[in-house]
Write a structure and sequence with these properties.
heterotrimer; A alpha+beta; B alpha+beta; C mainly alpha; A: alpha+beta; Alpha-Beta Plaits; 2 domains; three-stranded mixed beta sheet; two-stranded antiparallel ribbon; 9 strands; 13% strand; elongated; B: alpha+beta; OB fold (Dihydrolipoamide Acetyltransferase, E2P); six-stranded antiparallel beta sheet; three-stranded antiparallel beta sheet
Chain lengths: 295, 231, 443
């Protein structure tokens, strides 16, 4: 059977139309868009060997973000290991270790590729170019970020009728004004160092080399969960000061990558497959009823 | 260095989803596009031939049908007008002559009453009523092919004086029953046609030739007799 | 009382209002024990829901920062969606594979699925802390395209629409809207194809939600294959629910709500459904074993959580699987009904495991999540409301009885037109190329 010219052109047109979007979305440009232009993430290096447990950072944080002011003079707070809460973005815990008491600050780790950001269906959680992971009010309150955070940091105001999600934002509003995070500024013992993440890693390595034996030779946060903005140094293995050391080096969004990438594929393949099956069963069905009619 | 710049592994997700959605729309269009040329042929075909469903159309007002594809239309005073339905004439194709009984002779319901001459073959048909023939349609005898033009009006076959008209009509189909019966006829025909299309000739004049000949060129008359209940 | 819906003919708004007023009246006795109990739970639940909206989530719910998701997500949404899987499976069998034999149950399954989605989407609204923002991922107050939940939200919405289209001819029949029915029925196949695709994606998507909760879920449950496991288990979960609802429906509804022929074919259908369940569970069991071996976690089997895992795997997967097979082989629906109930329990436990029981299994019991009585009441209220709506609809709309005569005629007409067109195509093609194409096709 011959195909007339018009039909041929129509076929051709459809083919081109199908191919066109592919042409316009060639890689290269898009790859580049995924990388924030030449900006380095800022972060904080926490040297737990220097922390004296004064809790000035807790105070500064509460003041900077209008949170309830903690009673930092109350030493009984150290009696048990506390967790950050919707009322307290950062806190210092005391751990009894083989090398005596060690204080460790806890707050959002500001992952390089945060699980909470990948989890958020409305991009209320965002990784900013400066490095902080911030929360915005277009949040639905689904709390999927809480499920997906490897460090269990986001906290939800369960008891409010208009609840917010509370977590450290690395003082993003201060960063934009060129200021340091409040906790870093408040630290009297220079346990906290603010800077570009790359420089912080260099500094941390320098301290480990220079004072061999004083530090466990690991920078927590360099590779954990794909790397974090907060980096920790410790004199003892990190399990002893309340850190999870089983997180692996994979960035958390990678865990959903397989699924998310199969979605467009299934969306394209399934309807085509099902239409095909339907067309075949339809033909069979017809033949069967005709056989029935013939009988 | 690794890990210092933000690599959003889902940077292209949004575009991908848009692509997939447009892909799906294209797919729906493409699927229909591929099945359309055939439809176009059908449309062309539909221009040449009357729509198939017309073959089975029945005027139901005041009409009674016999399952042998003749009709009866009571006109008062026990007089009944009799003819053949559209389907019958389409089934047999071009009619060369119609052999009607003499005026004054008797016909009875379900018995052979008249016959159609098609080529060398003669097809009998059954009378829908009992009675004495009052009149026959002379003009049809002269131009038998015109029966297809107005099978339910101008092209009536004969008028019958039917003394038992009301009893006769009870044996015939009308209204919804007639429509149902025609549905069955259609189903029966469609089922047969699909299986015998391999034998359809190249001349393309399907309905002019009559449906039956297109089903089976050699034994078409058997098919006709089967439908007209005279086999 | 015995009025059938076939007689309905609505030509004006006034007719419609009169009709609706008569239909809104309850049919049958009001003060049955079932109605009284469920009704009071629903009332109490409604009060608690208001309380939740004014006083905040924490006033009603026991969830904490350790357990972001309680039973509203872990039970209502996770289990509800798996249970609604019967809708896409039966729709696939009937409309795509054209298993005409199962036509009698497809409306029941789709209605159940549709209501499940409507009510469970409602449960999400309750659970969302900032519920007034619920439309944000849909209206683009930032599209979180990188989120599994974003996809699930969209699939939810789209699948609800697809199900609405699938079930809509029944409602058009109820209201006597002939033209609308014709149009809506013509959309069915498209809606089913879209529905099956969307279901595949969001049944597995619900599992994918847990992929980033890596260390929070017990290693016997956490695997990168969660999405696949969720998808496969939704097939037998959904079919078990169809078996359950069908069995109950064909017993409790009054005779005039049910087509006698449908009821008689039910025992036959139940065995086929049991067959499908047995096969799917067989496959699922091996998937589970495969995942277990792949994860190298067998040493964990000999722990407390390991025993729980084995209970789920053997007691609530293998045993009902055997019961299904036994029922199929002996042609006896009784073990199939028992197996369906066991399977449903198994699926409930499986889904609740992921969000609650195996989630942070290492915490001491005092820090574990245990739902508050208010959460439970609201959960029950939602389920009961759904049952009420289901009953209300089955009592009026042709779900378990045959469509009215005109609808059947419409269907047949559609079919014969289709066949006439097909015939025309063949005749036409013969004409165009001299009769050879048909020959080819026949060979």
């Amino acid at each position: 059977m011959g195909i007339d010219r018009r039909t041929f052109l129509k076929c051709l047109g459809t083919g081109v139309a199908l191919a066109a979007p592919g042409c316009f979305s060639l890689p290269g440009k898009l790859e580049a868009a995924g990388v924030a232009a030449n900006k380095e993430f800022m972060g904080v290096l926490v040297d737990t060997t220097r922390c004296v447990g004064c809790r000035s950072c807790e105070l500064a944080c509460a003041e900077a973000h209008n949170l309830p002011v903690p009673d930092v003079g109350d030493a009984s707070a150290f009696e048990k290991v506390r967790d950050t809460s919707e009322k307290q973005w950062t806190l210092v815990n005391r751990y009894k270790t083989e090398k005596g008491e060690i204080f460790a600050k806890k707050q959002c780790m500001h992952c390089n590729q945060p699980g909470c950001v990948a989890a958020c269906p409305v991009k209320a959680m965002e990784k900013r170019e400066e490095g902080p992971v911030t929360w915005d009010t277009n949040c639905m309150g689904c709390r999927y970020c809480m499920v997906s955070c490897p460090f269990d940091i986001p906290k939800f105001e369960h008891h409010s009728a208009a609840p917010k999600l509370q977590k450290c934002n690395l003082c993003w509003e201060r960063l934009q004004k060129g200021e340091k995070p409040a906790c870093v500024e408040a630290c009297p013992a220079e346990a906290l160092t603010f800077g570009a993440r790359r420089n912080l890693i260099e500094e941390a390595n320098r301290r480990i080399y220079k004072n061999s034996g004083e530090y466990a030779s690991h920078i927590y946060g360099e590779h954990e969960a794909g790397g974090t903005g907060y980096l920790y140094l410790s004199s003892v293995p990190f399990e002893q000061i309340g850190f999870r050391t089983d997180l692996g080096t994979t960035a958390y969004p990678e865990y959903t990558k397989g699924f998310l990438y199969s979605v467009p594929v299934i969306l394209l393949l399934w309807p085509a497959f099902l239409s095909g099956v339907s067309a075949i069963t339809k033909r069979k069905d017809k033949v069967r009823s005709e056989e029935g009619g013939k009988r | 260095m690794d890990g210092f710049t933000y690599v959003d592994i889902f940077a292209t997700k949004g575009i991908e989803y848009l692509l997939v959605i447009s892909g799906l729309l294209f797919f729906a269009y493409f699927w229909r596009f591929l099945s359309r040329p055939a439809v176009a042929v059908y449309r062309e075909y539909a221009n040449v031939f009357p729509a198939i469903s017309d073959w089975f159309h029945l005027p139901l007002e005041g009409m009674y049908f016999h399952q042998g594809h003749s009709w009866a239309k009571p006109e008062g005073d026990n007089v009944v007008r009799v003819g053949i339905d559209d389907f019958a004439q389409k089934l047999v194709g071009k009619i060369d002559a119609i052999k009607l009984p003499q005026v004054g002779s008797q016909v009875s319901q379900g018995e052979k009453a008249w016959s159609l001459q098609v080529g060398s073959k003669s097809i009998d048909m059954l009378s829908p009523v009992d009675g004495k023939i009052l009149d026959i349609n002379e003009s049809l005898l002269n131009s038998p092919e015109s029966i297809g033009k107005d099978p339910y009006g101008q092209s009536w076959l004969m008028k019958v004086q039917a003394p038992r008209v009301s009893a006769n009509l009870k044996n015939l189909l009308s209204g919804g029953l007639a429509r149902k019966w025609m549905e069955e006829v259609r189903e029966k025909l469609l089922a047969r046609m699909n299986y015998n299309l391999g034998a359809v000739s190249q001349d393309g004049g399907v309905p002019v030739d009559g449906i039956a000949k297109n089903i089976d060129r050699e034994r078409w008359d058997e098919i006709v007799r089967e439908f007209l209940l005279v086999s | 009382m015995n009025r059938t819906t076939t007689a309905v003919q609505i030509s004006s708004l006034k007719d419609f209002l009169v009709f609706m007023r008569s239909e809104l009246k309850p049919k049958g006795k009001i003060l049955t024990p079932f109605n009284v109990i469920t009704g009071s739970v629903i009332l109490l639940g409604a009060v608690l829901i208001l309380y939740r909206f004014f006083m905040g989530l924490g006033s009603v719910v026991h969830s904490s920062s350790e357990y972001p998701w309680g039973i509203w997500i872990g039970f209502i949404v996770m289990v509800g969606v798996a249970f609604a899987g019967g809708a896409y499976v039966t729709a696939f069998i009937v409309y795509v594979l054209r298993g005409e034999k199962y036509h009698s149950i497809v409306r029941m399954a789709v209605l159940n699925g549709f209501l499940a989605y409507v009510f469970y989407a409602g449960a999400i609204l309750l659970d969302l802390g900032r519920w007034w923002n619920i439309a944000n991922p849909l209206i683009g107050n930032r599209f979180g395209v990188n989120s599994v939940l974003f996809l699930v939200a969209w699939h939810f919405l789209l699948y609800m629409l697809a199900q609405l289209v699938e079930i809509s001819p029944a409602f058009a029949e109820w209201l006597g809207l002939k033209k609308a029915r014709k149009f809506l029925a013509s959309l069915t196949l498209g809606a089913v194809i879209a529905g099956v695709t969307l279901s595949t994606l969001h049944q597995s998507g619900l599992g994918a939600l847990f992929l980033m909760a890596k260390w929070k879920i017990h290693p016997l449950w956490y695997t990168e294959f969660i999405p696949l496991l969720f998808f496969v288990s939704s097939i037998y979960a959904g079919l078990s629910v169809v078996i359950f609802i069908g069995t109950v429906s064909f017993r409790v509804f009054e005779k005039d709500r049910i087509d006698e022929e449908y009821r008689r074919s039910w025992d036959d259908i139940i065995i086929d459904l049991g067959n499908a369940c047995a096969i799917t569970m067989f496959v699922y069991f091996f998937l589970q074993i495969l995942v277990l071996v792949h994860g190298k976690h067998w040493s964990l089997l000999n722990t407390g959580m390991g025993y729980w895992y084995l209970t789920e795997l053997i007691g609530l997967l293998l045993i009902p699987g055997f019961l299904f097979s036994w029922g199929v082989k002996s042609g006896n629906p009784a073990p199939i009904r028992i197996a369906a109930v066991l399977t449903m329990i198994g699926v409930i436990i499986n889904r609740v495991d992921y969000s609650i029981i195996a989630y942070k299994w290492y915490l001491p019991l005092s820090e574990r999540y245990i739902p508050s009585w208010m959460e439970v009441v609201i959960t029950l209220a939602i389920v009961f409301t759904m049952v009420w709506v289901f009953i209300w609809i089955v009592n009026r709309v042709p779900i378990l009885k045959k469509p009215p005569q005109w609808a059947i005629e419409q269907e047949q007409e559609e079919e014969s037109v289709e066949r006439a067109v097909a015939l025309g195509l063949q005749l036409g093609l013969t004409m165009a190329d001299g009769g050879s194409s048909i020959d080819k096709e026949k060979k």
